[in-house]
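Why ABC transporter ATP-binding protein? Reviewers of the renewal asked for a concrete example.
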Amino acid sequence: MSAAVGQTRRPPAWLQVGAPVIVGLLGLVIWIIYVDVLGAAPRMLPSPIAIAQEFVLRWNIIAEDMGVTALNALIGLVVGSVAAIALAALAASLRPIDGMLAPLVAAVAVIPIVAVTPILNTMFGASSQFGRQAVAAIAAFIPVFVNVLRGLRQTRAVHRDLFRASAATRGQTFRSLTLPTALPYLMTGLRIAASLAVISALVAEYFGGPADGVGTAIATYAKSGRAALAWAYVLGGILIGLTFFLVTSLLERIATRRHAGT
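Here is what the prediction returned.
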């Protein structure tokens, strides 16, 4: 009975999927009534039907800009995650390195992305995507570093003693004990970092750099009064974020199940 009390009851699968869909449809109905029926919406808030029409009609150019933004976010996510994993491994292995990295990581965590983005875009030139990718990498670094470092410190002393008694090398202990224990934490960090990388890549496109990307298009069409097309690009940005979130959530679920089965 105590075990049953300690467990949290999860809602059924149909409710987990159906509830967000119902809430989304309800929001769309309210939006349509507000804009098309009551006619009380401001000029920059078009009907969802007009947004959907623009999204379909302009799909070719929207998809091209979505590809640019998604690639910038993906490169930033990969580079930021690799750097975070490497530094977290060093911090977990060597206490002096941990002490040196702590203030640096704290400083990176409070970097104002909005302020540093124009500097990076100017620094690397108007035709380079590097500034945008660097912003996405900075945003992805912190959640991966914090989660991986926490995961690397989760091994139990009794397990480490068992490997030591079996004359296992440090490499064998890392591969067979430390890494599997840290894997679910890594996946959680990647899930959080994926959304941050997409948002940061979108925000970076507002502040200079090349004339492509979803963020640049939203700013351009909003300023020119083409509200429906600007919102269609917003829909494109949402789809990129959802794709990153779903892929990393799937990886996290697979890693968690494997860890639970060991």
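The CA atoms of residues 70 and 240 lie 6 Å apart. This is the kind of structural detail the renewal will allow us to pursue systematically.
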